[in-house]
Structure formats: C-alpha cells, structure tokens
Amino acid sequence: MNTLRLTFGCILLCAAIAAAAPETIYLKSGKTYTGTIVKADEKELTIETTAGVLSFPWRSLDERTVRKHNEELWKEMKAEEFRQKGYVEYKGKWMTPQTKQVL
User: Is 98 part of a structural domain of the chain?
Assistant: First the structure.
C-alpha cells in the first residue's frame, strides 16, 4: 500500500515538474522567448516569461513552435506552402500535377 502511494506521488510530482518546465518559442523574425506556456487557443500562444506575459498570433510563430503546439494549424500552413509552389495533394501526398497524371 505504501509503495503504491509513493509511486503515485512520484508520478504526480514528475507531471507537475514537466508542466512547469520552461519552453522556448521561436518567432519567424528570429527572436526567441523562454518561459511557461500559459495558454494556446485558436488565435494565439501565450507564454509567461521573466519579462512578463506575452501573446503571439500563430502566424507570427516559427514552424517549429507551431508544429509542437498546434499540429492542425501547422498542417494547414504546410498545405498552403505546397499549393503556392504549384503542387497538388493526391492520396495524402503532395506532388506535381505531372506526377499525379502518371499515377
């Protein structure tokens, strides 16, 4: 019984430490900020830093940060990038229109 309590307590402690661990976010401008993510909604990502609480629209964040914290938006951004290059999506893969015709 005591072993179970100790194990459960360790799990809770590890989860609390991981949740409070500082993260680095990257902006498209090249700037980085380190702190604790306090909110991530459909509009923006909010991080608490030593300089205060800062909020950034998703479109201002570097691909690494978007992918880590908003996978769905990252997929949309990648799809738009491929479309702008003239690629088409076929069976979940991006390719040139010529390649799609061959398939």
Answer: yes
Q: Is residue 11 part of a domain?
A: no
* Percent of the chain's residues with pLDDT above 90: 64
Mean pLDDT of 44-57: 96
For residue 29, the enclosing domain spans: 22-61
Q: Kindly state whether residue 92 falls inside one of the protein's structural domains.
A: yes
Q: What is the pTM of this model?
A: 0.62
Question: What pLDDT, on a 0 to 100 scale, did the predictor assign at position 20?
Answer: 59
Least Cα distance to 40 among 20, 51, 54 occurs for: 54
